[in-house]
Design brief:
five-stranded mixed β-sheet; globular; 16 strands; 14 helices; single chain; alpha+beta
């Protein structure tokens, strides 16, 4: 059995996600290899999907991203890790989930939605029909454009039936997001959204899992079944054990062991055969480190348990933690330095004054403190400041081991 060290695993994951110093491919190819890029409404520093792409591409052309989303429609919004940008060329994978969420015999969520409709059929069924008819008649619309006088308490839909119905119709593939004026979703009918080249064949469960498992393994470099389930199409891997056995038997993936302190890590670890040359190059010393900042929702660290296992880095989102109980801050960016995560940065971008307020920088206990490291972190901060449009960086607290950071 092929043997890897934890360092090999970290470096392969970083390389596969274009966070090393090698020149990245096109934006679409980066997203293609990641599989998805999570969306999140919070813009305390910047939208997370833009931060994820900046970490890999630098100051990318945001017009290109707009073109891929709204003109070419090579990307669309749907569930993956969470609500995410996913690839239209991979539509059959996501259509399987749409069908699942439409089927009350297979989905507890579909059963809950059916119960909701049964509670108030006189309101919900006519309103749903009205929404679909109006979108087909009038074209894409914002949710607030629909007449809706019925109210219901809901944390996620602002108490409006329309919002919840649109989310339901989006989840089952009846409507799609056509645009984003500000951060509002412009809704339209799904059947008119798809470009001509969209693959429309319907896949069965084994086809979906065979494709998705390989996608997750390659994006992660090396992965256990638990890691696979938490990546790409999170928790949507029907029949994964059988699929993995078949992939191993056919030589598509191989089992490997990960050694740390002379002991193998627990679990079955899988490596895709197409990444063997990349792994062997890394083991031969062909590794190009880089320093950058990561979104809290970055694909590299979105699985918190895996992040702690590989990097020894305990990280949690504290957005919903009361301010007095936060350990590090509201919106904290991990600092990736080579194959280590060496610190975190708590900050806020003020777009009115073009000032990036860096409240606190925290260095990990084992973080290097040489001048080269401090310069690399400072450069990463300056590069992100430029991307954010900041003309001023206001530094507050820095770690005593990095005194020359500001």
């Amino acid at each position: 059995m092929r043997t890897l060290t934890l360092q090999d695993v970290r470096r392969l994951a970083i390389t596969r996600q274009y966070l090393d110093a090698q020149p990245p491919p096109t934006m679409l190819d980066v997203i293609r290899d990641l599989g998805c890029v999570q969306l999140d409404p919070i813009r305390h520093v910047e939208r997370t999907h833009r931060l994820v792409l900046w970490s890999r591409l630098g100051a990318f052309d945001q017009g290109e991203l707009q073109r891929l989303r709204w003109q070419d429609r090579a990307l669309f919004e749907y569930w993956a890790h969470a609500a995410s940008l996913v690839l239209t060329e991979e539509y059959p994978v996501h259509q399987w989930r749409m069908d699942l969420l439409s089927d009350e015999t297979r989905s507890s969520w579909a059963r809950r939605m059916k119960q909701w409709f049964q509670q108030e059929p006189d309101i919900l069924l006519p309103l749903q029909a009205h929404i679909i008819k109006q979108l087909h008649t009038d074209g894409p619309m914002l949710s607030r454009a629909f007449e809706d006088t019925a109210k219901t308490p809901s944390r996620w839909s602002n108490g409006r039936y329309v919002n919840r119905l649109l989310d339901y119709l989006w989840s089952i593939g009846e409507v799609m997001v056509y645009g984003r004026p500000g951060n509002q979703r412009l809704w339209g009918p799904a059947d008119a959204f798809w470009p001509a080249q969209t693959p429309r064949e319907r896949w069965n469960a084994e086809q979906v899992t065979t494709f998705a498992a390989q996608k997750a393994i390659r994006a992660l470099g090396v992965a256990t079944p638990t890691h696979i389930k938490k990546h790409y199409t999170r928790n949507i891997y029907p029949g994964l054990p059988g699929v993995l056995k078949k992939l191993v038997k056919n030589g598509v993936v191989e089992k490997v062991q990960i050694m740390e302190n002379g002991q193998p890590l627990k679990g079955d670890w899988y490596l895709h055969q197409e990444d063997i040359p990349r792994l062997e190059a890394i083991q031969a010393g062909h590794w190009q480190p880089r320093t950058t900042l990561l979104s809290p929702f970055d694909n590299l660290i979105c699985d918190r348990e895996r992040t702690e296992l590989l990097w020894g880095f305990h990280y949690r989102i504290e957005i919903y933690v009361p301010a007095a109980k936060r350990l590090y801050g509201y919106y904290v960016l991990p600092i990736l330095h080579g194959d280590q995560i060496i610190g975190r940065l708590d900050s806020k971008m003020d777009r009115q004054t073009h000032t990036w307020h860096i409240h606190n920088v925290y260095a990990e206990a084992n973080a290097p403190d040489d001048a080269e490291t401090v310069t690399a972190v400072r450069t990463a901060v300056q590069n992100l400041a430029t991307f954010l449009g900041a003309t001023t960086i206001q530094w507050d607290q820095q770690p005593p081991t990095w005194p020359g950071l500001p």
